[in-house]
TrEMBL record:
Keyword DNA repair part of the UniProt annotation: no
Record organism: Hortaea werneckii (Black yeast)
Pfam families: RAMP4
Keywords: Endoplasmic reticulum, Membrane, Transmembrane, Transmembrane helix
Disordered, as annotated region: 1-34
Family: Belongs to the RAMP4 family.
Keyword Repeat: no
Reported function: Interacts with target proteins during translocation into the lumen of the endoplasmic reticulum. Protects unfolded target proteins against degradation and facilitate correct glycosylation.
Record-given protein name: Stress-associated endoplasmic reticulum protein
Recorded topology in the membrane: Single-pass membrane protein
Biased composition (Polar residues): 1-14
One cellular component term from this protein's GO annotations in UniProt: endoplasmic reticulum membrane
Domain of life of the native organism: Eukaryota
Localization, UniProt: Membrane; Endoplasmic reticulum membrane
Length: 68
C-alpha cells in the first residue's frame, strides 16, 4: 500500500529525529514531556461530590417536606 504525502512527511520527520539521537548516550537524548493529565475530569468530580452531598443531606433529614 502506498504512503500518502502526509504519511511520508510524518515518517521523514520521525526518521530525522531518530537519526539525531543515534550515537548519543541515553541521558543526552532530550525527550518532550507532556504535562500530566488528571485521570478524571473536574466536571465528574464536582457532579459526584454534589450528588453525594444531596444524598447525605437527605439521609440526615436536613431537607424536610413542605407538608410538615
Amino acid at each position: 500500500m502506498a504512503q500518502t504525502p502526509q504519511q511520508r512527511r510524518a515518517n521523514n520527520t520521525f526518521a530525522k529525529a531518530e537519526e539525531r539521537k543515534r550515537g548519543k548516550p541515553q541521558g543526552e537524548v532530550l525527550r518532550k514531556e507532556k504535562p500530566a493529565k488528571a485521570p478524571i475530569s473536574k466536571t465528574w468530580v464536582c457532579k459526584c461530590l454534589s450528588t453525594s452531598l444531596i444524598h447525605l443531606s437527605h439521609a440526615l433529614g436536613i431537607y424536610r417536606s413542605a407538608a410538615e
